[in-house]
Amino acid sequence: MVTDWIKVARRTVQAMQPYQAGKPLEEAQRELGLASLVKLASNENPHGPSPRVLNAMTESLSDCNRYPDANGYYLKSALASKFAVDVEAITLGNGSNDILELVASAFLDHNASAVYSQYAFVVYALAVARSGAAALVAPASNYGHDLNAMLALVQPNTKVVYLANPNNPTGTYFSHNSLAVFLRALRSDIVVVLDEAYYEYAQAADYPDGQLLQRSHPNLILTRTFSKAYGLSGLRVGYSLSHPAIADVLNRVRQPFNVTSPSLLGAQVALDDDQHLQQGLDTNRAGMEQITTGLDTLGLEAIPSAANFVTFAPGIDAARVNQALLERGVILRPLANYHMPKHLRVSIGLEHENQKFLNELPAVLSALK
Ligand SMILES: *Cc1c(COP(=O)(O)O)cnc(C)c1O
To answer: How far does residue 294's CA lie from ligand 1's centre (Å)?
Structure first.
């Protein structure tokens, strides 16, 4: 008899679905028989990594017979001086995704509950489900987090709240003042994870100063990443800034060598390359203008975004629009798994990539009408 392994798995795992990742670029290209593809699907930096990062990492590869520094001393020191915090406030992760999971492993079990928003980044749901804790999902308001609705869901057994700011896949953000009000009203023994994966892109004057709020709210964890603005998604490096006592808890459930040595070095060098970071931010600002203007010209509604992507409703069957764009060499992210079947998410690319998307979209729309 063949064993049905899903039945042997933990009950919490039986209820889970695997994460739907996009196809590797080369494979999609081969299947479609296209000469080139424009990938605007994963909110990556279209410029690629900084050349300084590549050089440093290449040189370091000869040491890869050694285990990495389990404490990430040099990267933590660089982060500590950049953000004027103690080294003890920093936790490194295999992507910031790892830190979101570490929080769940450290604080959640089947006796606990966690709060997050409808349309919030899918990893919160996955991390909470795996922990066995109850998920308390607050309805969104205009696709953004409704902090009052989230507060209203808090139970005596609530241990963690996940907030994405800006949120992926909607691009929405909430202000410093609304977060301050939320934190004052929330029990101080609840861990608040403020996921700032798009922190570098968020330029609004009222975008929260998380470090300032941490002074009066030591239950606030900030998570950030090298995957987006720094252009290092493939290296898997993220970090959190928190009270050292929270970092101590996370450190107990962390795999000792969770960040590889080339990644530690690559992130450290990237942190110092302001010019490359700024180039990406400038490209994003111009590209955001290009794409939102283009969508507006087509009469399509887009959700205002503070990040490096835009979510819009093509007006007709989004799944078919997505497939037709793919066949014309443009990869977007469909959002049915976010219960947003009418929307598509487009990442901001280089000018010619954005233009390719804006050229193909009206052709697809009129072909499908
Ligand atoms: C991309 C993303 C992350 C994390 O990405 P990592 O590559 O694991 O650092 C976290 N939160 C949100 C909202 C994201 O979009």
So the answer is: 27
